[in-house]
Amino acid sequence: MRLDGKRVLLTGGTRGIGRGLALALARAGARLVTCYRDDQDAAKVMAAELEELGDHRVVRADVTDAGDVARLVQECVTHMGGLDVLVSNAGTISHVPFEDLTAAEWQRVLDTNLTAMYRLVQQALPLLPAGASVIGVGSRSAFVGIPQRAHYTAAKAGMVGLVRSLAKELGPRGIRVNLVSPGVIDPGDGTLPEPVRRRYEGLTALGRLGTPEEVAGAVLFLAGDASSYVTGETIHVDGGI
Ligand code: NDP
């Protein structure tokens, strides 16, 4: 699934799933602008890894800040001369019993996972040509519900509706909009607690957790021309959880 010549904006590409997506997109021949919010050390490592693969950019931009997102989109114009693929991956999770869920925490999680995609697509839309592909990274939890994650699952379920509606609204312009819905993914950096791994492995049909590279497989498919007649869809990458 080559993406030669495609210009990609990927949010949250310095750690976890996003890091795997960034490397896979660059290896497939795409040019890339990606962003992070806090972890400058991870960003430096990522920038060095991407430099080996071509002319890519890693910039600091908070997807909850409209000004930062405008700057990020402008960076795509300056660096790549436009945009063909948008991947809204940056997200955040927290575990809070519903009784203790403050309005501020509800808002923070919705803003980072759901509103960020609205902000990103709206700001990038004037740049997107016919044939462009917009991809959101959702979550399996939106489809099953998870205790103590009402805010997170609501945000990710919102992305399903956002993608379906945008697919219909932007389809006449030749722009496709889809969602990739990961199950439990091991970032591969040793940070996943062993009890968590064991618990979730047992829930999957394949008996193991997924990898960022396996999420990237679905993103590469949706980013490229192999999926030219796929829009409004969710691809589950969850090992049959
Ligand atoms: P990580 O926490 O490992 O990495 C998140 C990335 O997004 C980092 O690069 C981080 O930058 C960046 N980021 C976070 N908040 C912002 C922000 N406000 N503005 C800009 N960048 C930001 O996340 P995961 O890899 O675990 O998750 C990636 C996506 O996949 C998320 O949308 C998540 O909900 C989804 N997902 C993850 C699953 C999993 O098992 N990991 C399962 C299902 C869905 P920095 O380091 O600087 O904060």
TrEMBL record:
Keyword NAD set for record: no
Keyword Oxidoreductase listed: yes
InterPro entries (UniProt xref): KR_dom, NAD(P)-bd_dom_sf, Sc_DH/Rdtase_CS, SDR_fam
Keywords: Oxidoreductase
MF terms (GO), sorted A to Z: oxidoreductase activity
EC number, as in UniProt: 1.1.1.-
Gene3D superfamilies attached to this UniProt entry: NAD(P)-binding Rossmann-like Domain
Enzyme class of the recorded protein, top EC level: oxidoreductase
Domain Ketoreductase: from-to ranges: 6-183
Family statement: Belongs to the short-chain dehydrogenases/reductases (SDR) family.
Designated name of the protein: SDR family NAD(P)-dependent oxidoreductase
